[in-house]
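note to self — DONT lose this again. spent like an hour looking for the file last time. sequence + predicted structure for the chain T wanted, 139 res
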Amino acid sequence: DEHSLDLLLLPATRCATPDLASLAGNTQQVEHVDGSVENNSTKACFTLHAFAWKNLHIPKLVVPTGLTEDGRPTAVQLWGRALPYQQMFDDAAAIEHDAAFLQLVRRVVEATQATPSLARADAPSVQGLWEAIGSVDAS
């Protein structure tokens, strides 16, 4: 409230989506603020905001933002304003508050997706997957 912010834009994770070998071996490379890189557990990659703040009573949404140079998906998180404590467990107030947040996020996402370098894209490993799934005969 001190800064009158409606949204916070944060990285969704500390690294790009890991591959299966990194997941299995806990050897995901995590880049630090100073530019140094170390092999670390996958937990170190995903705990930046995902787990520590998960249960805060504020609206949050993860938005895909494209691919890294090697084709791994990236994303950002958008956090909205918290409800006043007195309304935190009022379902009607929460619905109205979350609806306003989603309308604001929709405008941000539309602007983001209109920027080619930030637009959601399918990773090379799954391109064509949806067409293949759609062409499978269910009978």
